[in-house]
Design a protein that fits this description.
The structure holds 2 protein chains of 2 kinds.
Chain A lengths: L4 E9 L8 E10 L5 H14 L22 E2 L2 E2 L21 E5 L8 E3 L2 E2 L2 H7 L22 H11 L6 H5 L6 H12 L2 H4 L2 H14 L10 H5 L7 H16 L3
Parallel strand pairs in A: 1-5
Antiparallel strand pairs in A: 1-2, 3-4, 3-5, 6-7
Chain B lengths: L4 H4 L1 H26 L9 H12 L1 H30 L16 H4 L1 H29 L5 H9 L2 H28 L7 H28 L5
Helix pairs in contact in B: 2-4, 2-8, 2-9, 6-8, 8-9
Classes of the chains: A alpha+beta, B mainly alpha.
């Protein structure tokens, strides 16, 4: 078809967590501009399989931009050149015929490479397990007016809850910091009455786990906010800083 | 869990960076105000009176000790944080993260701070040590004359300008960043803080830069 592209892919190949990896160059041809970036990888993998080679391992699930599974660092940017999209929602029309595209896994001590482009993001799960939920009994659904929530707070909580935990913030941050993720997960609960009840213990234990996992600290460069596919705001990080100060100072433990 | 996270967690370390940074900024306000008196056209009489007051006043002397510890804490804490942050990404990217998503000076606070430290060594040798010697020997110290002598040399002017430019960019990020680290983010006040930080990072270094240049070109005598 006319308008289709020939590209040169430089993809990180690494057999497992122990072995050293390297960038391997693969030419791909006849790529439709309407394909998503992951579909282009499907084409590459089919070709590799027919040639008897090992396909490239990469994380993906919903391919609708809502699950947070895909995680590619494309030409130096998490989820590629466009803002506000995940890799699965990045389309090949964002590239030009003849382009060389470098694809790497997320790089962070807390996100070790499992294979090729797949990294282990269970550090995020362990942070969530330290209080990223509500354990008090909130009972059955009650009359909405019993729990007054100002519209502004509801909106802010909703925007924070948009975080899909993909790890682009960590991948982008020069310090490999998870502050944007943790701040979103703390904010989405602490802004609402049901979450406020346990807000103090939550912020302390989640931040402790974040430090334990070996994420870096926040130096307020703001890069995470730009690269976040869900547009999570730095305002959440300020809220996390604020709540952590109050909670630790008042903590009796 | 213990209450130690108020001091040991990564967030707490940033509180220390922010608080010591703001304390150092308050020192800059005093420093630039007193030193701007060199522009009073009375051959340094007003400036020397103020400088002598600062060199002998007991409250200022106590504050100076605090300033020293604040500076050391700011440097040590940043060193610890930098080492931890480097450890957080042991394998670097083949294509480094795009430069468009953040300002270069926000990513270069360590380098800018190190340049400032090197400048400080020269600066202390030029002015702080001679002042201290005069105070301890009980002599009258003429800071104005000392500035004349130092800034007659073009290389001192050059070193000071490099130090002052580093200061400007360090403040450009540091001023507003300190408030964010302390969790002081507000729809109404944050834009004001950012504007104040921007102009502070321009005006204070400009005033400082004007001194070596004016002395060197003979505008002040």
């Amino acid at each position: 078809m006319s308008g289709n592209m020939n590209l040169s892919l430089k993809v990180w190949r690494q057999k497992n967590a122990e072995q050293k990896g390297e960038l391997v160059t693969y030419p791909v041809s006849d790529i439709s501009p309407d394909m998503s970036f992951l579909e282009m990888f499907d084409v590459l993998n089919e070709k590799l399989i027919t040639e008897g080679q090992e396909p490239v391992a990469f994380d993906h699930d919903c391919r609708e931009g809502i699950c947070g599974a895909c995680s590619m660092h494309i030409n130096g940017r998490a989820h590629g050149p466009n803002n506000g999209v995940t890799t699965c929602q990045l389309h090949m029309r964002s590239f030009k015929d003849g382009d060389t595209i470098v694809v790497e896994p997320w790089r962070a001590a807390a996100f070790p490479v499992v294979k090729d482009l797949v990294v282990d993001r269970s550090a995020f799960d362990r942070i969530i397990s330290k209080g990223g939920y509500i354990s008090v009994n909130t009972g059955n659904a009650q009359d909405a007016n019993n729990l007054p929530v100002p519209k502004v707070d509801a909106d802010k909580a909703f925007e924070a809850a948009a975080c899909i935990g993909c790890g682009a913030c960590v991948a982008t941050c020069k310090n490999g910091s998870a502050m944007l993720f943790v701040s979103a997960k703390v904010s989405q609960l602490s802004l609402l009455p049901q979450g406020k009840a346990e807000a103090k213990e939550r912020v302390i234990s989640m931040v402790n786990q974040m430090d334990e996992e070996g994420f870096g600290s926040c130096t307020n460069t703001g890069a995470c906010e730009i690269e976040c596919p869900k547009g999570i705001s730095l305002e959440n990080i300020a809220r996390l800083n604020r709540e952590f100060a109050v909670a630790t100072a008042a903590s009796e433990k | 869990m213990s209450n130690s996270e108020l001091f040991t967690s990564s967030i707490a370390k940033k509180y220390v960076m922010a608080l010591t940074g703001l304390f150092l900024i308050s020192f800059l306000v005093i420093h630039v105000t007193i030193n701007s008196l060199v522009f009073v056209p009375d051959h340094g009489a007003t400036f020397n009176t103020a400088a002598n007051f600062m060199a002998h006043n007991i409250i200022i002397r106590i504050m100076e000790v605090g300033l020293f510890f604040g500076l050391v804490l700011h440097m040590v804490q940043s060193l610890i944080l930098t080492i931890q942050n480097n450890k957080a990404r042991p394998v670097k990217y083949a294509v480094p993260p795009s430069n468009d998503s953040s300002k270069w000076y926000s990513r270069s606070m360590g380098i800018l701070g190190s340049l400032l430290l090197l400048f400080l060594v020269v600066h202390m040798a030029n002015f702080w040590i001679p002042t201290k010697q005069a105070v301890f020997s009980g002599e009258e110290h003429n800071s104005f004359e000392k500035m004349k002598i130092v800034f007659a040399e073009w290389y001192f002017v050059a070193i000071y300008l490099v130090g002052i430019i580093s200061l400007s960019y360090h403040l450009m990020h540091g001023f507003q960043s300190a408030f964010q680290s302390l969790g002081l983010n507000h729809k109404k006040y944050t834009p004001m803080i950012k504007a104040a930080g921007f102009w502070f990072a321009i005006i204070v270094p400009l005033l400082f830069a004007a001194m070596p240049i004016a002395f060197h070109l003979g505008f002040i005598d």
